[in-house]
Protein 1
Amino acid sequence: MSTKAEALAVIPEFQFEGKLQECIPFGNGHINDTYRLTFETERGIRRYILQRMNTSIFTKPKELMENIEGVTNWLKKKIAATGGDVERETLNLVLTKDGKNSHVDAPGNYWRAFLYVEGATSYDQVKNDRDFYESAVAFGRFQGLLSDYPAKTLHETIEKFHDTVDRFAKFRAALDADVCGRAALVQPEIRFVLEREAFAHTLVDLQAAGKLPLRVTHNDTKLNNIMIDDVSGKGICVIDLDTVMPGLSVNDFGDSIRFGASTAAEDEQDLSKVSCDLHLFEVYTKGFIEGCAGALTETELAMLPVGARMMTFECGMRFLTDYLEGDHYFKIHRENHNLDRCRTQFRLVADMEEKEKEMQEIVAKYR
Ligand code: GN1
Ligand code: MG
């Protein structure tokens, strides 16, 4: 954790407007340290977000900031061209006084600042269909506005993040090593993965064959990464751009479904409660396709249900790999936590396999 004194010390480095009134810790993010700054200016109050980045998780802060700068500048141009509100519909970086996208302090901490999005809130839980739909429209719009961005120029800040074939290989290596002697305890889960080796290739192979385009992807497409307007209820701004990378649109869609359309928590122990809610699937699909506004290709549309299944399978496999390796990646809060998470994901995958046809029909309704 950084201290408020450390935050105060870097404030003069940035192009903030006015006189500082307040600096308070802000939000409930688990990774970066976040402060909200209030300044008094001649035109009234101006607020900003100041963050110290967690460079033990984001080990390539320079590349990460280049990604954010490139993508937000692009979004600003697009939003301005269509008469939108540039200050509220995308994150806006506040540069340092020497024009850089971040400031490195004497101990080597990376700091960055954004305009605060006024009059909007991010929600941790899906309370109603409307919010889930709005998050879908917003993530779809993000995809659409960035559909002609040269995705190749983005840095892969976490290598092979959604390369499911590589994730499968890492799972197999963990299984062979079996450093904790846990493999014997989870034979059904191991079989579940091994039986789906061919499936793991589906999207990676389509991409390699040039049938799925490389896109700008967000990679953390949860409801709480959308700011919802307090008055209109519309999803106005996509936030948390730390994992923006080149990737597949269907994976961004899929991760939203994996998390948001499940009838139970990711670590539910009673598997009878876990299924993929087709109504929520439809709500999200409708919003996402509308938001993309024609940017998705026929193959991408056809692969949306596979994206949902793939992200769920991959995530379950990652939980199982971490369980076999001794729980060093995902934080656990109880014994077998990663195994419980793995089981919910595999239950969802099995359910999605049965619902594949219905999912295809839902997509067909909106394409
Ligand atoms: C991690 O910490 P959170 O919830 O933002 C993980 C995602 C997983 C998710 C599963 C960088 O995301 O890929 O889907 O846990 N993020 C990273 O809960 O590995
Ligand atoms: Mg996150």
Protein 2
Amino acid sequence: MVTENRVADTWKAVLGKLQIQVTRPSYDTWLKGTVGLSCISGEMVIGVPNAFVAEMLDRRMHSLISKTLTDVLGKEHTLRFEITGSVSPAEHDDVESALSQPEERQPAQSMTIRGTRINPRYTFESFVVGKSNELAHAASLAVAESPGTSYNPLFIYSDVGLGKTHLLNSIGLRLSAKGLSLEYATTEEFTNGYIKAIREGKTDDFRDRYRSADILLLDDIQFIIGKEQTQEGFFHTFNSLHASSRQIVITCDRPATHLMLLEDRIRSRLTGGLVVDIQRPDLETRQAILGSKADAIGVHFPIEVLEFLAEKVDSNIRDLEGCLNRISAYTQLTSSRVSLEIAERCVNDILHLGGARKRVSEIEILETVCGYFAIDQASVKGKGRDKPTTLARQVAMYLLREESKLPLSAIGRFLGGKDHTTVLHAHQRISNQISSNSHLRKDLANLREELARL
Ligand code: ADP
Ligand code: MG
């Protein structure tokens, strides 16, 4: 029997291997939301979000998954898919981040520039411009035309799935085609590299690597929050590049002013050039993007289906793409044509997956957390500092912040008159532990599932 943690790790390893064997759309559509549940007596049970995915994996990828699992575990296992409902975003992100380790990326679909990967499909040509993103697009083009001159740094922010990484890659591709040397990294990679350099006493090498670049492209700078050492490393790298007019482009999931726990000197550096945001695309742009994506995958989508999708999916472009991929996979598998009926079915699945849940109340959150950890509400609202109570309290604060729209001070008041900084720190603590602590991850996934069932 393999323990719970090992099962999760095993499945992550399998996903890592599968990711380089299947196309990205396939991976995103069918495998991304799955989790390893148990591995007992030669049977591996995999949690999947819904019956549709279970059916597809069983029919289409069974032997590939089975073979890959054998590679990882060293012996054959039978596979069973169990429907567990949607996977929480935290769990999702974690699988994602485990997969984004350098050695696990898709070598066939990305090209290497100075040891980092750039997605060759994310070009300016494939980027559809509309009102919501025209400024970010124009600024990115300007930077790619004359780096290091006018807009330095360029800071692009938006909600998830609206094209930041796409634009960052487009800039990278344009500039590397001009023969400039590039450092492109997610902030996670930057952080890991820096921590490793410190551990191995090689910070000089790290600095040289980044400081010798003509351009630094750093994706998702929000991950630098709370990481003081990395902030220091970033600050010096930034300054030396900026001082010699090398272009820096940074993306973030929120405006720099909302980056709490970030040193002021860094915040002012980030916003010292040009700051642009990307908004959600309007209906017309969504339709144009869908049309261009459908062309790119070479599947005919009738206009009424594109209209239906553009109307229905207004959250972000990643979800729009997810729908297209799902519909095209479904029609290929069943040798059918794309129709409104199939589109409706797929969209329902995606929206169900994508966390379009109803909002739960703060009381429901508190009750759920207390029930789950078997701690009474008075203790969570009280001052006791024993481990179980502290954990329940911090998780409650975390979930209240994530799931309700209450301000920090209101969450503090609700939980027995705590200070807003206490709530902030609890949120930070739990966020930081999510990636390394699989028990906590599981607790949060379970709690989110309970909340989703309310
Ligand atoms: P972010 O980094 O903001 O989370 P991404 O850049 O990863 O978002 O975009 C999500 C997906 O949507 C990608 O596949 C990307 O190619 C696509 N996308 C986003 N904006 C556009 C656009 N304007 N035109 C075409 N595709 C887009
Ligand atoms: Mg991104």
